Amino acid sequence: YDTSHIRNFSIVAHIDHGKSTISDRILELTHTVEERDVSKQMLDTMDIEQERGITIKSNAVRVMYAADDGQEYQFNLIDTPGHVDFTYEVSRSLSACEGALLVVDATQGVEAQTVSNANLAMNSDLDIIPVINKIDLPSAHPEEVKEEIEEDLAIPADDAVLVSGKTGEGIHELLEAIVYLVRPPAGDAEAPLKALILDSYFDEYRGVVATVRVFDGVMRKGQQLRMMALGDTFLCDGVGCKRPLETPLAELGVGEVGYVVTGLKDPSLVKTGDTITLADRPCAEACPGYHEAKPMVFTGLFPIDNKQYENLRDALEKLRVNDPSLTWAPETSVALGFGFRVGFLGLLHMEVVKERLEREFDLDLIATSPSVDYHVFRTDGTMVDITSPQDLPDVTRIDHIEEPYLKAKVIVPPEFMGAVMQLVVEHRGETGNMVYLSEKSVEVHFDIPLAELILDFFDQLKSRTRGYASLDYEMGDYRTSDLVKLDIMLAGETVDALSFIVHRDKAYSMARGLCDKLKDIIPRQQFEVPIQGAIGNKIISRSTVRAVRKDVLAKCYGGDISRKRKLLEKQKEGKKRMKAIGSVEVPQEAFLAVLKVD
Ligand code: GTP
User: Fold this and answer.
1) Residue positions in the annotated binding site?
2) Residue 530 to residues 68, 515, 518, 550, 596: CA-CA distances in angstroms?
3) What is the three-class DSSP state of 356?
4) Where along the chain is GTP bound (predicted)?
5) Are 234 and 264 within 8 A, CB to CB?
6) Quick one: how far is CA 6 from the chain centroid?
7) How far apart are CA 183 and CA 544, in angstroms?
8) Residue with CA at minimum distance from ligand 1 atom 3
9) CA 306 to CA 211: how far, in whole Å?
10) Does residue 244 have a cis peptide bond before it, meaning omega lies within 30 degrees of 0?
11) pLDDT by residue (tens digit) across 352-404?
């Protein structure tokens, strides 16, 4: 086994700097996919990724490159997500590689996730190739971006490759640079198999299919294999690689990246970060594995039709194979029935999971307003973790509440510094250090309650800085805050699924804003519906949805029957997304209205 012709590398970057576009060009130039078959963003295989134009999951493909030295090289390329919610995906991908292409947009320069991804790559001791993309644009300033890379990231930029993912300029030079600058994998072909699980998904017919990196030994069909951490054994049902479609291979050799069909039908037997080895000749030591991703945001997910509860549990189990950061516990709501409290890495992650559950598992779900993990100290001296406002003990039994803070940083041109600081203060944050990265960009550090950040902080940051600011954060400490539970009543009844926890200083404006929003979201019913906001027994805001007689058929003048039927069907369709709470029909948006209150 000779690994000198293998190159394993990830492509990392701040969101929208062009990773997926560059990957497409690489597939094209290496004839992995013929030009006429290249669709946009080939590696973003999920519908949601294509529609939103973002990468959510990492994807490993193999391309063969005929280099200028006359030799053929095997490249295993891993495209990674750029959004801060998915940083854990990036670090998983990096652990399978010897190199990283750090893509920086020539018009934007270094941004928040450029810094965090560069740090991840340096910590993993990878060979880093800076790639300056979008040089076709008139506003590109590659020389300044080179300086930023050297000064802000301490990465030498002499070898930076200038490319355009759009026109393909520089991509050939990039492929050559990968051959020369990324080291081939080390590893012992004779040693017992040692393969790291990077990712996996559940297939109804083949069971769990796992993406692996072989560090030692060789993997082939028919071997009896063992998961080192979880201990289960299985018969290897085949191996292969993606090009970009799954292509079976005789074996995966040392240093290679590919997939293994485990045949395991129980999704809980396969864990990302686990090591696969031979059942009768295990390797001495497992791969280091991964830190568990810690959920930051929690929401209730409830099936609109309560009969789908078991299906939802099953869907969550299967989705976790592909998304190990998912956690959940059963939750019951008076208003919504049986569901689950699910933990997410951020709001985008939450949206994506909800959408995947609905699409891939054909469920109709309602998500309730997001919450963070509060530490509630009771008067009896004990502490409870609370991720749902419903679980908050009675106020008389609460001594104090602590909430999670983030250590955050924003990179922004200096003229917007004032706007950023004001926004931070409005969201109960505290600004700290400021570092000039260059004349054109400042890094502002601050601490901010996570609960504030998950509301509309990011959107406001973007709009107040005309899109120039980029944000990155990590978990900080817990701090005591004066928090209260705000309840919402519809037609005199408290709707538990609409409650949320808020800082006392903001409770009044929040209650008012929410009552106003709900008034517009909740459709008129046959009777008047008062909406009230309350803290404990005290009503602090009120609005009213006025009554209407909703006689859609009247519009048809008793005429065309098929038209009548269509209208009825349309109305039924509209109803599907609603949940009857008492006698009031409430649409999904109402439960997330708290995200929209300014
Ligand atoms: P995420 O996967 O969501 O993190 O984004 P990404 O880094 O993969 O970026 P993507 O490839 O989706 O590109 C973002 C946008 O920039 C798209 O609209 C691309 O068409 C555009 N783009 C990418 N490369 C170039 C380039 O070289 N020149 C120009 N003009 N536009 C580019």
Assistant:
1) 16-21, 133-136
2) 74, 9, 10, 18, 20
3) helix
4) 16-21, 133-136
5) yes
6) 30
7) 67
8) 54
9) 35
10) yes
11) 898 889 888 889 888 888 899 999 999 999 999 999 998 898 888 999 999 99
Question: How do residues 136-161 score in pLDDT, each as one tens digit?
Answer: 999 999 999 999 999 889 999 988 99
The three-class DSSP label of residue 274 is: coil
R_g over Cα of the chain: 27
Ligand 1: atom nearest CA of 163 is 27
Cα of 42 from ligand 1 centre, angstroms: 13
In sequence order, the 6+-apart residues with CB closer than 8 A to the CB of 35 are 28
Which atom belonging to ligand 1 lies closest to the Cα atom of 52? 3
Classify 173 as helix, strand or coil. Answer: helix
Measured from the CB, is residue 184 less than 6 Å from ligand 1?
Answer: no
Q: Ligand 1 centroid to 29 CA: how many Å?
A: 17
> What would the two tokens of residue 514 be?
């929410």
Across the chain, mean pLDDT equals 87
| Longest pairwise C-alpha distance within the chain | 83
From the CB of 114, is ligand 1 less than 6 Å away?
A: no
- CA–CA distances in Å: residue 372 to residues 164, 180, 452, 499: 41, 47, 10, 13
Ligand 1 contacts CB of residue 18 (under 6 A): yes
- Phi/psi of residue 517, nearest 5 degrees: -65, -45
SS3 220: strand
Are the C-beta atoms of 238 and 131 separated by less than 8 Å? no
pLDDT value at residue 580: 76
Mutate to test the pocket of ligand 1, among 21, 55, 114 (most ligand atoms within 8 A of CB): 21
- Own/partner contacts of 445-448, CB < 8 Å, gap of 24 or more, are 445/407, 445/408, 445/409, 446/408, 446/409, 446/410, 447/405, 447/406, 447/407, 447/408, 447/476, 448/405, 448/406, 448/408, 448/424, 448/473
Q: Determine whether the shortest distance from the Cβ of 55 to ligand 1 is under 6 A.
A: yes
Is any atom of ligand 1 closer than 6 Å to the C-beta of 110? Answer: no
Can you state the angle between helices 19-29 and 171-181, rounded to 10 degrees? Answer: 90
- Measured CA to CA, the distance from residue 85 to residue 90 in angstroms comes to 10
Between CA 369 and CA 129 the distance in angstroms is: 42
Let me know if 413 is exposed, middle or buried by CB neighbors in 10 A (0-12, 13-18, 19+): middle
DSSP state of 501: E
- pLDDT value for 69: 96
Q: Which residues of 554-576 are buried (b: 16+ CB within 10 A; e: fewer)?
A: eeeeeeeeeeeeeeeeeeeeeee
Strands lying side by side in the sheet with 337-344: 327-333, 337-344, 297-303, 365-367
Q: What are the binding residues for GTP?
A: 16-21, 133-136
The number of the ligand 1 atom at minimal distance from the alpha carbon of 134 is 27
CA gap 288, 294 in Å, rounded: 18
